[in-house]
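2024-03-11 09:14:02 INFO worker-7 job=invfold-0412 stage=load source=structure_tokens
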């Protein structure tokens, strides 16, 4: 009874698992894709547990002996991931990627072990066809919504709050056009191969829908992946399936089709590159950083899944110019191969490449055998293998330019392709193995099953916490938005408890302490920052925020000192307060400088640091700090930054105009009038509409006894803003404009 139940669970649940992975999203968590991650964690572990319980119940472990040759590269890759996790200096972070690796490989083992006939494999195919129809129709709806309905916040055809999040690029249920594109390039050759086999209209229509949606993602990587999958599909179909009919006409036709498709896609990619070169330059600089990171530990790697916690220290400064943001992070290097090498070193990378070659070769041999076998030639299995091998090619090409495999919606599809190929190779290309049952005494069997169930049940409950943490993180943000800061902090603590590797709630909590700023908050914020840096030493703008917090603490201590002096507190109390002020000042300077090491572009860091120096009378360091910001773009024109050069400063003219203004204010404070005039003029050359700079320049001209130029500044201010009170008052006083 138990054996039959477990078999049914595996047989029916795995296809449904793939269906849910494609369709599900949930907008009441911080990450809309968290539901997919939770399905992988919870559903994946449950199914692997069921499979292990089945093996114990059957007393049949011959799979590990008879099928070992077919799953050996997968076993090696699992071992590589396990060792990488064990040596990782960031185990909490590595655990997330390791658990995915475990589930992916477990699914391959289940597919090879249990999906050993045509009926079972076709059930997976049917669920994927259903999923493809649903997500493509939703993608079509998103297209109609964009072109024929008003932009948000107005309502439209798409009922969900993420509508038009990527403009005209559709994402369906995947939350990102690139991930949607990756799923589609997998399904495209599978659907096309089934259409060739069945000649059914619903498959032809679905393929057209898929191609339309691939186009509408406007994802260059997905277009390239589609092209790769299509080319290999045509080549395999012609040289294997049409081998008996192969003639010159077929070859010319196939070549023409490939040429037309490749030409169209390459033209589209070229146009998109011209339209948005930042996409290319972003990848170049990210790949360069990834290569430098690889070279820190090229043999064993740094640890599976740790790229995003170490990358900020290696990120090229040009990325900030390209993105225009500073409070974001790159989780992956936009290239699966570089990430595997970084994670697991040359050893893990070699195993990964061997795995890819092994799977593609197995698929190729499957097609050769099935098409030469009269009993299988008319079966759908050869065509499924054709689609699977073509989809596999599409993904491994796509992953040169995208991070799709690191996201579960794409990862499960990649490992499904591996599992199906190896299942066909192990079960349908050779005679089935005779199952060798070894008798296990019932009491021992029960003990083994209880241990397995207990371990996996604990793991499942633990992974449920990841979903809860994501929901709680969103709730905390909402609490912060309505200024319920106590509830926000308490909820962030709960989120961290449910998912100790989730570093975002820790960072946000430190920020909320900084905002709330009541008794004890400075200490609690310090603790939160230290906890954050133990896991992610350079997390986004945490060092900058910490510096600001210490500036705020310094100001608080200065006010407190004034109160002590006013109330005639003992000298030692005042001296202790002086020490507290100095410590806060020192920490602020330290963290400003540390943030500049990872982000030398952000102007506010320079302004904050220069202001600290100026407040302590260190005008020389203040001046050097501001000049350093102005001169930094020149460094990007020389090695090692000049692999892709452009006038980066032109992207941030207003930033540099503001820095000149700060420098002018610094000179004016020191009564360096000529120097102040020069830099104010440089500021206005970049931003002629800056009224504050014009007012300061008028002061400079007055000090230089150049009243004509001073007056001219006020006239120009009035022309920019006739309602400026200072300009009106001045110009009325000298009779340039009439008094009201």
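2024-03-11 09:14:09 INFO worker-7 stage=emit residues=740
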């Amino acid at each position: 009874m138990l054996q039959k139940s477990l078999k049914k669970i595996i047989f029916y649940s795995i296809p449904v698992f793939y269906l849910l992975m494609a369709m599900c999203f949930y907008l009441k968590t911080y990450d809309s894709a968290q539901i997919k991650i939770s399905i992988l964690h919870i559903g994946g572990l449950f199914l692997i547990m069921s499979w292990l319980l089945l093996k114990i119940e059957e007393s049949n472990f011959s799979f590990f002996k008879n099928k070992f040759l077919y799953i050996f590269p997968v076993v090696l890759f699992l071992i590589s991931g396990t060792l990488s996790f064990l040596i990782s200096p960031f185990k909490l972070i590595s655990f997330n990627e390791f658990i995915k690796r475990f589930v992916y490989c477990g699914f391959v083992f289940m597919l090879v072990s249990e999906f050993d006939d045509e009926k079972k494999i076709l059930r997976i195919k049917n669920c994927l066809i259903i999923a493809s129809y649903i997500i493509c129709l939703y993608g079509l709806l998103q297209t109609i919504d964009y072109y024929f309905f008003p932009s948000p916040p107005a309502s439209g055809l798409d009922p969900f709050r993420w509508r038009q999040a990527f403009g005209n690029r559709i994402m369906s249920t995947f939350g990102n056009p690139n991930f949607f594109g990756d799923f589609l390039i997998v399904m495209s050759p599978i659907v096309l191969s089934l259409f060739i086999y069945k000649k059914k209209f619903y498959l032809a229509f679905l393929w057209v829908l898929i191609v339309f949606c691939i186009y509408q993602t406007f994802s260059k990587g997905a277009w390239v992946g589609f092209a790769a999958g299509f080319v290999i599909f045509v080549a395999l179909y012609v040289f294997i399936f049409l081998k008996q009919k192969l003639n010159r006409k077929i070859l010319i036709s196939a070549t023409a089709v490939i040429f037309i498709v490749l030409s169209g896609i390459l033209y589209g990619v070229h146009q998109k590159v011209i339209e948005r070169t930042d996409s290319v330059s972003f990848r170049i600089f990210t790949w360069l950083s990834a290569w430098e990171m690889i070279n820190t530990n090229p043999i064993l790697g740094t640890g599976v899944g740790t790229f995003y916690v170490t990358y900020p220290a290696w990120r090229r400064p040009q990325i900030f110019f390209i993105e225009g943001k500073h409070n974001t992070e790159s989780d992956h290097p936009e290239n699966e191969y570089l990430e595997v090498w970084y994670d697991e070193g040359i050893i893990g990378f070699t195993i990964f490449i061997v795995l890819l070659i092994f799977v593609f070769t197995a698929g190729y041999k499957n097609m050769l055998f099935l098409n030469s076998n009269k009993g299988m030639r008319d079966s759908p299995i050869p065509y499924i293998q054709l689609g699977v091998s073509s989809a596999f090619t599409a993904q491994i090409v796509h992953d040169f330019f995208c991070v799709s495999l690191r996201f579960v919606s794409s990862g499960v599809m990649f490992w499904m392709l591996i599992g199906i190929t190896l299942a066909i190779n192990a079960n349908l290309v050779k005679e089935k193995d005779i199952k060798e049952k070894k008798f296990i005494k019932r009491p021992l069997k029960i003990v083994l099953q209880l241990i397995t169930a207990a371990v996996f049940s604990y793991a499942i409950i633990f992974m449920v916490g990841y979903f809860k943490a994501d929901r709680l993180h969103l709730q905390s943000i909402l609490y912060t938005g309505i200024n319920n800061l106590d509830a926000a902090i308490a909820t962030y603590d709960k989120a961290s408890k449910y998912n100790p590797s989730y570093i975002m709630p820790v960072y946000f909590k430190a920020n909320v302490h900084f905002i709330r700023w009541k008794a004890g908050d400075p200490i609690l914020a310090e603790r939160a920052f230290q906890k954050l840096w133990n896991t992610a030493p350079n997390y986004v703008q945490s060092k900058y925020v910490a510096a600001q917090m210490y500036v705020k603490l310094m100001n608080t201590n200065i006010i407190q000192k004034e109160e002590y002096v006013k109330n005639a507190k003992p000298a030692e109390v005042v001296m202790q307060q002086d020490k507290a002020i100095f410590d806060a000042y020192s920490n602020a300077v330290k963290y400003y400088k540390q943030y500049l090491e990872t982000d030398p572009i952000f102007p506010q860091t320079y302004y904050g640091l220069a202001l600290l120096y100026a407040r302590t009378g260190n005008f020389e360091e203040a001046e050097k700090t501001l000049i350093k910001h102005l001169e930094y773009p020149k460094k990007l024109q020389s090695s090692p930054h000049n692999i892709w050069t452009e006038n980066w400063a032109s992207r941030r003219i207003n930033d540099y105009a503001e820095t000149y203004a700060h420098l002018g204010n610094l000179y004016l404070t020191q009564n360096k009038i000529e120097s102040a005039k020069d830099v104010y003029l440089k500021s206005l050359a970049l931003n002629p509409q800056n009224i504050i700079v014009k007012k300061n320049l008028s002061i400079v001209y007055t000090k230089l006894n150049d009243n004509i130029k001073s007056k001219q500044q006020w006239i120009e201010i009035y022309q920019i803003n006739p309602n400026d009170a200072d300009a009106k008052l001045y110009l009325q006083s000298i009779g340039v404009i009439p008094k009201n």
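2024-03-11 09:14:09 INFO worker-7 stage=report msg="The radius of gyration is 32 Å."
2024-03-11 09:14:10 INFO worker-7 job finished
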